Amino acid sequence: MLTVALCTLRTRWVTFTGSFVALALGVALLAVTGRALAASLDAPERAPERFAAAPVVVRGQDTLRVPTPSGDRTAEQARVRPVPTPVVARLERLGTVVEDRSFPVRVRGGRGPGAPVGHPWSTAAFAPYRIDAGRAPRAADEVVVTGGWAAPGERVRTDRGTLRVVGTVPGLGFEDAVFFTDARAAELAPRSVQLAVDAEASAVREAVREAVRDGVPGGAGVRVLTGADRRYADADPHRDEEALTALNALFGTAGGVSAFVSVFVVSSTFAFAVAQRRREFGLLRTAGATPGQLRRTVLAEAAVVGVLASGTGCVLGAYGAPPLTHWVVGEGLAPAWFTLGDHTWPYHLAFWTGLLVALCGAAAASWRAGRTGPVEALREAAADAGATTRGRWLSGLALLLTALVTLVLALADDPGDLLHRKTYVTRPMLLITAAALLAPVVVRPLTRLLTRLPARLPGATGLLVRENAATGVRRTAALAAPVLVTVALTGSLLGAVATLDGAKAAETRARTTAAYVAAAPSDAGFDPATLDRLRAVPGARISPSAAGEVYVLEDGVALVRSQARAVAAPGALAATARLPVAKGRVADLDDRSIIVNEEWREHTVGRSVRVWLGDGTERVLRIAAVLETGTGDNGVYVTAANAAGAPVDRVDVALADGADPDAVAAGLRAAVAPSGGRVSSGHAWADAASPGSEGATRAGLLLVLGIALLYTGISVVNTVLMAAPARIREQAVLRLAGATDGQVLRVVAAESLTVVAVGTLLGLAVAGLDLAGMWAALALLSVPAPPVLPWAAAGTVAGVCAVLAATASVVPAALALRRRGGRPGG
What pLDDT does 720 receive? Predict the structure, then answer.
């Protein structure tokens, strides 16, 4: 059987080209993703940046620790507490103590870097920064800058006033810094959460332990950082871990889609090849071949293709990994330092996975080949009478039923789970597989429906297209299936993101009833003077609020973090926002209560819950109202007394009766101008604040869809080329019947376009059904947002498939007509 398999591969190499290319690309992608995963697992420990030369860094409490019967539960605090004053006093006895401060600086006039950060000059030596031009700052309006974007002697306008650059230091790559004098930095950022100590680490730790033993409030949470741990004093020390986690999720999704589509392409190719070779298998059965020998022949063909394709894929992966790595770094999907290692296990994994995919894809086809009878295939007509087997029927219906049942169960149990990325990426796979298995059932009626009008037009073209496509069910289904997969993936993935973005935007617009919104220029928020000026604007009723966090221990085991909005007065909140209240009243919110949402385990109005604020302060608050779950952005609300010192970053403004809107807007803009704030209408702010899909998420989805489209192109071209030799005779018969070459080619092209249209409609139906599930989930979550089908993207994908199918069918037909000169048996 191996000899027969090798001979078949040599004579029918065109038939297996698509499987070979698809497997090779899939193995190459698996090798690349495996190398990326290996590199992320062996990622180097991030080195300290701002405090690389500091002996010891002492940081205030930044970790919330809640004891439970099963052990402590920890979470990173949203706001770091300052180092207690008694601790600072003890440290000053050991050596020089330098308080660190960080605050944003906005450069006006379009100059300078995008997001410079201010620091005291005394902390520059810990990076270390060294002056390369000018001198250190001495006056309140003097600064030293990194990167050389301003030269000594220049004056720059910022939200911190007009500053004079007196020196420059070379940038170190991790920040754009502006150094002020220590006194001026203390005025601009009075709150300091960490400091550098010029002393022995052991002495510093002992001083902190003594403070804890003496009962200094907050002393137990103070951290002494040395060595590599000093990186925790840098801004966003976990950004590399988060980036690598997202990168692994991206490559995992890409690898999963690659394996899914590879199996799909291989199984489709072998199934179509077995259907075309039924006469050949019948002759082998007549010559004495057993069903087991036929099955082993098909599997041997798949094994040979799998070995060759996997080996080629590993070579392609070795060359393709560096460019892909450069792309993910350039797109911000991976840290700038991310590089590939020299691991070899990803190649072993990719090779054997490719071989397994080839064998799995050919398994069903080999079973069908073994069922071929000695005379059955020789007597079978050219028309496909039984394209859908009982096993295909049962498998397709079982997958469809599974998809629908799991959807119903998810809607009944937790509709919000359907809005998570992992769910809306994997859920369409069941529907797509079920639709592909059941495609032969609907191909014939759908083809007749699409060609009903063309078939009635004068001429035979429309009639021939209808009969050819409807008669060759296997060929039509094999060509329509890959189009179905790609259109369905495009519609489901991009449609899910667009639908979710639209729902979140609708929520934001529904919640915002303010006439105007004043937004702070940075995380530092509005200062008290700015708030006083806003309150003094005639005709304006302001509602200041701050962004915060609240932690709650659920079921005694999970420490859950929720976004919170701290408001100054519930009455002002009710005038500028329309919260989706399910139970209770917003007006009942006070300093001893909280507004939660239905996602909380405890959401009964009047009950008390134990929570921890953003700085770790524990509170017991009464539930005043409960908000609907929505898309997950309906956070909790507290008063400013429970904001843990969070600065006011937003001021919603309602108009008093009879107030002139234009006059109020002008007064608001004048009030926030000194601080660099921005005033916009409520509608404009809601549109700008509506959360959209992140660039990394969109880039990842486009990568996945690009892979699917590539595989679809391979499958479409391969299927058409496989069918071309068998159709040469019927095209020649048309030519002898009086059809011109142009008419024959138009029939061929129109038939291919019709089949692509069938696949497109099936793909849109699958995407529509998938998005209908998300729409039902949003409706249950009280977010009446319509599903969004990405017509432009789906149309582009269908157009590419149409061009490929028409070209791949017309070119061989044109060559055959020219070579045979219209003779049917030539």
Answer: 72
Q: Report whether pLDDT(826) > 50.
A: no
| CA pair distance 826, 821, nearest whole angstrom | 8
- Residues 755 and 476 sit within 8 Å (Cβ to Cβ): yes
- Please list, in sequence order, all residues whose beta carbon lies within 8 angstroms of the beta carbon of residue 291, skipping any fewer than 6 positions away: 285, 370, 371, 372
Which amino acid would we find at residue 665? A
The secondary structure of residue 132, as a DSSP letter, is S
Per DSSP, what are the bridge partners of residue 563?
A: 549
Three-class secondary structure assignment of 242-256:
HHHHHHHHHHHHHHH
CA-CA distance, 461 to 466, in Å (whole number)?
Answer: 9
Q: Are 541 and 524 in contact (CB under 8 A)?
A: no
Q: Contact at 8 Å (CB) between 499 and 772?
A: no
Read off the pTM.
Answer: 0.74
Look-up: residue for tokens 């070119």?
Answer: 811
Q: Is 54 exposed, middle or buried (0-12, 13-18, 19+ CB in 10 A)?
A: buried
DSSP type of residue 551: E
Mean pLDDT of the chain: 81
Sign of CA dihedral 84, 86, 87, 89: positive
Query: Encoding tokens for residue 706?
Result: 């690009």
Residue 517, pLDDT score = 92
Rounded to the nearest 10 degrees, how much is the dihedral formed by the CA atoms of 260, 262, 263, 264? 80
Helix residue spans in 42-175 (DSSP H): 85-92
Please state, in angstroms and rounded to a whole number, the distance separating the CA atoms of residues 53 and 172.
13
Short-list 96, 138, 104, 102, CA closest to 120: 102
Q: For the stretch 24-34, what's the b/e string if a residue is b when 16 or more beta carbons lie within 10 angstroms of its beta carbon?
A: bbbbbbbbbbb
User: What is the distance, to the nearest Å, from the Cα of residue 647 to the centroid of all Cα atoms in its chain?
Assistant: 31
pLDDT per position as a tens digit, 560-613:
888 899 998 887 888 888 888 989 998 899 999 999 998 888 889 999 999 999
Residue-level pLDDT at 623: 94
Closest CA to 598 of 574, 620, 628, 624: 628
* Residue-level pLDDT at 615: 87
- Tokens encoding 469: 């496509």
